[in-house]
Amino acid sequence: MNKKLFRQIRNEWKSNLWLIAELLLISVVMWYILDFIYVKASIFYQPRGFDISHCYLLRMGRLDPKSPKYMAKDTTESEDIRNILTRIRHRPEVEAASLSANSYPYNGSNSSTSIRYDTLQNNNWLIRRLVTPDFLRVFKYEGSRGETPSQLASMMDNKSIMASNNIFKKKYHIKLTTLVGKKVIWGDDTTTRYKLAAAYTPVRYDDYSEAYHSYSMLYKLPEGWYTTDNNLELCIRVKPSMDHDFIKKLWKDCERHINTGNVYITNITSFKDVRKKFQQYQSNQIRNFVTGIIFLLLNIFLGLLGTFWFRTQQRRSEIALQMALGSTRRQIFLRQISEGIIILVLASIPAIIIDLNIAYAGLTQYMHGATLQPGRFIITVSATFLISAIMIIIGDWFPARKATKVQPAEALHED
Questions:
Q1: 389/339 same-domain check
Q2: Is 111 helix (H, G, I), strand (E, B) or coil?
Q3: Is residue 349 assigned to a domain?
Q4: Which of 411, 408, 413, 344 is nearest to 381 (CA)?
Q5: How do 55-62 and 263-270 pair as beta strands?
Q6: Fewest CB within 10 angstroms: 100, 113, 119, 367, which?
Q7: Side-chain-facing half-sphere of 257: CA atoms under 13 Å
């Protein structure tokens, strides 16, 4: 049977050549699409390095001296902010609360800096985050050596810094954990050395940016920053069992129990809403692109399915003759499917070579700083072959099944 099958493929080389060219084009296009989907999905589902579940963002404002509620008193604005933070922390439903500046996740307002150790210096944008220690507990940062958020929080002071474990990895292939405990230079001040207290798991900028390109550092929020002019963020983590109508309850208590002196809460937002709003544009772009990709894939599937369906349908008389000569339905199915798979293999060999060159040329999506990665390439090429094979099997199976139900004499008479 194998010799006959290969002889038939060779004898029908003209039609098969066009079919191979069609499968070659389809395979390359489908691989490119699947590679794009693979990269986007892989990045989206990478660990984020933080957790915003049951977290809320509070903003604070200051009463104008002309306001009828303005209070002329001895307490300073920084004391009022500390009192608000303390009152929030003492609420029974609050697990942790922190102050920070340009630091919370999904925040488009950033400050950049640099870190140096000996000849090592980060050459990419390093985000500076000024936070109180409990910030690490609110967003559940984890140390690269296995430190818990609470352990990291206990290490934070005014003489040390922390940074993500990857800030030297791209340029020097060095993990920051190897430098923990060393003295480093932070920013432009070359006279002061800060202890590197810990290296934490890289924190992604958003859901569409991979950890590979996300660099950040933490320093304890200086006391002089405790003013509303610095647009401070009050971030809260609520206990999961008590996270019910938290915003409504907190607003109800703000006037009597939370607001202090001339500082008051101006806004309360769930981090689910912060995340949605920050990524709205990117999410819409991805959704529209994926919709277009699905439509294109559907057309490819239908075209490939129709090609083999029509090809098998044209062979009704040939199938009838095979049955008249004693072939079983199983043999006919296997012959039809085997022919399609062999043609697909012949088309896939040059298609894989083309795919390899496209990836090598950097024309596909970057992931982990590269466009060509062995595991990724094998997965996407295999998925392309598998999907094409399934379409060929469906396109051969159903018309062949229908043809085998027709009496041989009737089929030959119609032909």
A1: yes
A2: strand
A3: yes
A4: 344
A5: antiparallel
A6: 119
A7: 11
> Pick from 278, 294, 324: which residue ends a domain?
278
Look up tokens 């607001």; give the residue.
259
Please state the length of the chain.
415
Q: CA 280 to CA 277: how far, in whole Å? A: 5
- Sequence letter at residue 406: V
Does residue 364 lie within any of the structural domains?
yes
Q: How far is Cα 237 from Cα 4, in angstroms, rounded to an integer?
A: 71
Q: Which of 252, 278, 304 is the last residue of a domain?
A: 278
Strands 216-220 and 126-131: parallel
Supply φ then ψ for residue 263, to 5 degrees.
-105, 135
Instruction: Look up tokens 């985000």; give the residue.
Output: 127
Are 394 and 257 within one domain? no
Reduced DSSP (H G I as helix, E B as strand, rest coil) percent helix, strand, coil of the chain, to 5: 55, 15, 30
- Among residues 197, 169, 183, which one has the least CA distance to residue 118? 183
The answer as to whether 50 is a domain residue is no
Full-model pTM: 0.84
For the chain, helix (H) and strand (E) counts, in that order, are 13, 12
Residue 207 near residue 279 (C-beta atoms within 8 A): yes
Dump pLDDT digits (tens) for 119-141: 999 877 899 999 999 999 999 99
Q: What stretch of H or E contains 120?
A: strand 120-121
The burial of 92, by beta-carbon neighbours within 10 Å (0-12 exposed, 13-18 middle, 19 or more buried), is given as: exposed
How many domains does one find in the chain? 2
Q: Which residues of the chain have a pLDDT value below 50?
A: 1
Structural domain containing residue 341: 2-45+280-414
Question: In this structure, are 65 and 22 located in the same domain?
Answer: no
Q: Domain check: are 121 and 267 in the same one?
A: yes
Output the 3-class SS for 181-212: CCEEEECCCCCCCEEEEEEECCCCCCCCCCHH
Residue at 375 is within a domain:
yes
Tokens 């069609």, located at residue: 22
Quote the pLDDT of residue 379: 96
pLDDT in the model for residue 339: 80
pLDDT score for 232: 94
309 and 350 inside one domain: yes
In the numeric block, the tokens 């129709």 are attached to 306
